[in-house]
Structure formats: structure tokens, C-alpha cells
């Protein structure tokens, strides 16, 4: 292929057939020239959260701010460049308090929110004092206020969801309490809030509470928090509150600070919010100032007569199915007599290694769980000691497991100074509920689409059986290309970041060819001796290059 046409091919989306031919050449190793950089204005590009593309869509229930992905044939095959002056990120735990300004030169939040303690520019850094709109003096005094009414310490609360999180100082502060918080916010007028959170080393991703279920299983979170998130919980016949109820573990805590809680000129919305909570039999713990704390019943749902026409979901509705599923106005029963409730499940850290009740639903679930836990403890030790992957060192903070199953990889890393985004592919068995029962966090995702994160947000990305992520369940036919999938890994990976990929020798050979055009430096290794498998492990480093 002539060099003169290569740039046009990689960046063009006008000829799908030509693109398919090019992808095949890359996979076969017949095209070995590295991909070109994408244009300089693409440094923060998220294909499914593209404001220019999505601005033409409906505003109803913020539909236009949800995920809307281009077709695979519309995706340019080029490498997202780092911004001018990019540096290897500040390491954890120092990164919790400061990051390089040049890595995300977006001053808008510092200018708008600096007086509320969100962040400020100081020399070559952005500094994070730990504040937020409802806690400008810092998250710690706010958490001290909550602990008067909630068991913040002691391992009773482990998994939390922070909705509309800003730069995630609340979730970052809860880490010291042993609470693992997944923080989310949309790509909105604040633009880079989730990018800042991830640069700080705090678990976060881009998400809009709009028309669809959030990509989590039922009863995932012990604690759900909204601090001036401005979600209209009682609107649309309480649809948003009902979705929060689906996600909240029985006996879990819901905290809302800010409007409409005892807020001037929001009296009607506040009355409606209280009415929804009463309808779902939530126990009111406290209203103090502009903060309300409720406790969800620890038994199967009770429903009081209500004006919102809320009913129980039909048994045919699987509450764990949440990938591109529209929001529903019905309450999810737990079906196991409160067996998921806080106080009835083990506390943290005991719950990490104990097979949860939801594993019993699977055929041979307990045996599978225990075998998976042992397997990953052995493999992670092999990664560290033999393959010299820098897990457990300050070089690796943000980790993703693209094919997490029961979260065994993350469980084996629990004592390391990192966190893992466990991704359960939406086409595979929906085991994400078991991951949350263990006290870990993650999301559903279909890897034939880009992930909802900014470029350069993960230090290490791990995937076992990468080829299966491109296949329809139970089929050998691919629904997307390995080239596109690996280009997405490259987009998410930080310069000098690591990819660890396991698969058959044939697939790993193909992966190595694609890695070459992504400018990765690779080694191919045998699996750990205990596995007795013929598989291979590719360990790759993303090179640090500039435009």
C-alpha cells in the first residue's frame, strides 16, 4: 500500500470495504508500518461521548448525554496523541492531592469551582484541597458528619456509588475508611471532571443518568451518594429513584445533599422526594441542613400506596441485565429473603474470599468461585515474580480487567496500592453481581464499542481470552475486529503503561502483529507452569511518543 494513501486510509471513513481490507492486512502481518497519530485536537477524544456528534440528539431525559457510539467502520484507525507537554503522571498517593497541569490543561473547573475547594492551579500542578460544592471546607468534615448516622468504619459498608462526583474528592477520601467508591459524572460543561479523577488515581468513569439503566447489577452498592448531583429523583414518576433502589443493597444507605433537600424554592420537589422514599418504605435516618440520609429496608420490597403508580417488577425481568436497557418503573424483589442485605453478608475484608449467595445460583458456582480464586492467586504471583510486571509498585495505580468473570484477578491484588475496574462483557455470563458481593467494583461493557473513559487513564490493562471479546456468545464468528479492540486498549492506556494479554498461541501471534503497528514493545511468555495449558501471555509496554 502506497505511503501517499496510508494517511488518508487510516483517517478516512468513506470506504468500509477498503478499511476491512486494511484491518485484514494488519492481522495477517502484511502491513507492519505503525499507525499514524490522530489529529492534535483528538487528545481527549471519547468516541461514544462526542459532544459534536451527540448534540443533534434528543434532550429528553438527557438522552443526548448518554453513550452514542459510531459504527466500527466510522472509527478512524489512528493513535490518540498525548497533549503537548504531557508527563508521566504523578504517582499514588501523591496524585490524590496534585497532578500535572500539562497533562490536562483545562482551567475551567479551577476557575469556576476553586472557591468551593474543588481544585486550583499552583505552579506546574493542579492542587486538590479535597472540597466540593456541598463541602467546600473538605470532604473529611463532611464524612465525619455522615459517620454520626452511618457505619462508615468497621467493614459494614464497602462498595459505594457517587453520582455526579465532580473531581471525586469524596470517593478519594473514603478510600482511607476502607470504602471503595465508584464515582461517575457525564461529559458536560465541566468537561474533564472524570479525567481529573482518574489522573488522581480515584476509581471513576464517564456516565450519564438518562434514559437507561446504569451498567451495574442489582443490589451492587452498600451506599449511594449524591452531593448536588441535581438528579430529579422524583421526576418521570420516580423513575430515577427506582433505579437507585435497584442498585442499592437491602439495608444500604442513600445520602442526598443539596437541592432539593430543605432548599429555598424547591419545597415541592423536596416533598415529592420524601413521598417516593415513603412509598418504598425507606427509613428516614436524619435530615440535617441540606442533607438527608435514608436506609433501604433489609427485606424484600414493601410498597406503600403511592401517587407514582410504582409496582413490583415481573419475575421475567432480570434486574442484573443493564446494558442498553431502558429504565423501568418497577421495584426489584431480591428473591432470596434478604440474603443480600447489609449485616447478613460478611463484612469487609471477609467477603472478598467467601463465595457469596449469588454464586449458588450458578451450576457448580461455589466450586467455580473457589477454583477461580486459587487460579488467579497463582497467576498474579507469576506475573510479579517471573514476568516482572510492576504490580504492587507505585508505577501502577489504575488497573482494568477487561474480562473479569468473578473478579479473581482483582481479588489477588487487593493488598497492592491500586484499584481494578472489573469489566464483565455484556455478551458473557453476567457475573458482575458476584464481583460486587466480594466488595469489588466494575461495570458491564460490550468490547465491540469504545469504553466510557478518557484517553490515557489506565496504567495496566489485563485481558484473558481477548479473542472471545470480539465474538458473539456461543459463536466463532466475530462481530468486530481485534485491530479495533487493541486500538481502544491503546487509547485507554497511559504512555509507558502495560498491557497483559492471555490467549492461545495462535491468537497471541496475531496480537503481537497488531501490537507492532500500535508501537508497543512486546514479549511473549509461557503461562505459569501450574496451569498446564498451551496458552501464551503477551506483556506489552506502550511507548511514549509525541506529535
TrEMBL record:
- Provide the primary localization: membrane
Q: Name one GO cellular component term.
A: trans-Golgi network
Topology with respect to the bilayer: Single-pass membrane protein; Single-pass type II membrane protein
The Swiss-Prot or TrEMBL record annotates one GO molecular function as: S-adenosylmethionine-dependent methyltransferase activity
* Keywords linked to the UniProt accession: Glycoprotein, Methyltransferase, Signal-anchor, Transferase, Transmembrane
Q: List localization entries.
A: Endomembrane system; Membrane
Q: What is this protein called?
A: Methyltransferase
Origin species, per record, is Gossypium laxum
Organism lineage: Eukaryota, Viridiplantae, Streptophyta, Embryophyta, Tracheophyta
Amino acid at each position: 500500500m502506497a505511503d501517499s494513501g496510508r494517511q488518508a486510509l487510516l483517517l478516512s471513513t468513506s470506504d468500509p470495504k477498503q478499511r476491512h481490507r486494511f484491518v485484514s492486512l494488519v492481522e495477517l502481518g502484511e502491513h507492519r508500518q505503525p499507525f499514524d497519530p490522530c489529529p492534535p485536537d483528538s487528545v481527549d477524544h471519547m468516541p461514544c461521548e462526542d459532544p459534536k456528534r451527540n448534540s443533534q440528539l434528543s434532550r429528553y431525559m438527557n438522552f443526548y448525554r448518554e453513550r452514542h457510539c459510531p459504527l466500527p467502520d466510522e472509527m478512524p484507525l489512528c493513535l490518540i496523541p498525548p497533549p503537548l507537554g504531557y508527563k508521566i503522571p504523578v504517582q499514588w498517593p501523591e496524585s490524590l492531592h496534585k497532578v500535572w497541569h500539562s497533562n490536562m490543561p483545562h482551567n475551567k473547573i479551577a476557575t469556576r469551582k476553586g472557591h468551593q475547594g474543588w481544585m486550583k492551579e499552583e505552579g506546574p500542578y493542579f492542587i486538590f484541597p479535597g472540597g466540593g460544592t456541598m463541602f467546600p471546607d473538605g470532604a473529611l468534615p463532611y464524612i465525619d458528619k455522615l459517620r454520626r448516622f452511618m457505619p462508615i468504619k468497621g467493614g459494614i459498608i464497602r462498595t459505594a456509588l457517587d453520582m455526579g462526583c465532580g473531581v471525586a474528592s469524596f470517593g478519594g477520601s473514603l478510600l482511607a475508611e476502607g470504602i471503595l467508591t465508584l464515582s461517575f459524572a457525564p461529559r458536560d460543561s465541566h468537561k474533564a471532571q472524570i479525567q481529573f479523577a482518574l489522573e488522581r488515581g480515584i476509581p471513576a468513569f464517564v456516565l450519564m443518568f438518562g434514559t437507561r439503566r446504569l451498567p451495574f447489577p442489582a443490589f451492587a452498592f452498600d451506599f449511594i451518594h449524591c452531593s448536588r448531583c441535581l438528579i430529579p429523583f422524583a421526576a418521570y414518576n420516580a423513575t430515577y429513584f427506582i433505579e437507585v433502589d435497584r442498585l442499592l443493597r437491602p439495608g444500604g444507605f442513600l445520602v442526598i445533599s443539596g437541592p432539593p433537600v430543605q432548599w429555598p424554592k424547591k419545597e415541592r420537589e423536596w416533598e415529592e422526594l420524601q413521598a417516593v422514599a415513603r412509598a418504598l418504605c425507606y427509613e428516614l435516618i436524619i435530615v440535617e441542613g441540606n442533607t438527608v440520609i435514608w436506609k433501604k429496608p433489609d427485606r424484600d420490597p414493601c410498597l406503600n400506596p403511592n401517587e407514582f403508580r410504582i409496582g413490583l417488577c415481573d419475575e421475567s425481568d432480570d434486574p442484573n441485565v443493564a446494558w442498553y436497557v431502558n429504565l423501568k418503573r418497577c421495584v426489584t424483589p431480591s428473591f432470596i429473603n434478604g440474603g443480600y442485605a447489609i449485616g447478613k453478608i460478611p463484612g469487609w475484608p471477609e467477603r472478598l474470599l467467601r463465595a457469596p449467595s449469588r454464586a449458588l445460583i450458578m451450576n457448580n458456582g461455589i466450586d467455580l468461585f473457589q477454583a477461580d480464586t486459587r487460579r488467579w492467586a497463582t497467576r498474579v504471583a507469576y506475573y510479579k515474580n517471573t514476568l516482572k510486571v510492576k504490580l504492587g509498585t507505585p508505577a501502577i495505580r489504575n488497573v482494568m480487567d477487561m474480562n473479569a468473570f468473578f473478579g479473581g484477578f482483582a481479588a489477588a491484588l487487593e493488598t497492592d496500592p491500586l484499584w481494578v475496574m472489573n469489566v464483565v462483557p455484556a455478551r458473557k455470563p453476567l457475573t458482575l453481581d458476584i464481583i460486587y458481593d466480594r466488595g469489588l467494583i466494575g461495570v458491564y461493557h460490550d468490547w465491540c464499542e469504545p469504553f466510557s473513559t478518557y484517553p490515557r487513564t489506565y496504567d495496566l490493562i489485563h485481558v484473558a481470552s481477548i479473542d472471545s471479546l470480539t465474538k458473539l456468545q456461543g459463536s466463532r464468528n466475530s462481530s468486530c475486529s481485534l485491530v479495533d479492540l487493541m486500538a481502544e486498549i491503546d487509547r485507554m492506556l497511559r504512555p509507558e503503561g502495560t498491557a497483559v494479554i492471555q490467549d492461545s498461541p495462535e491468537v497471541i501471534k496475531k496480537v503481537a502483529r497488531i501490537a507492532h503497528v500500535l508501537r508497543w514493545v512486546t514479549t511473549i511468555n509461557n503461562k505459569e507452569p501450574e496451569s498446564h495449558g498451551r496458552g501464551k501471555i503477551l506483556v506489552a509496554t506502550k511507548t511514549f511518543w509525541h506529535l
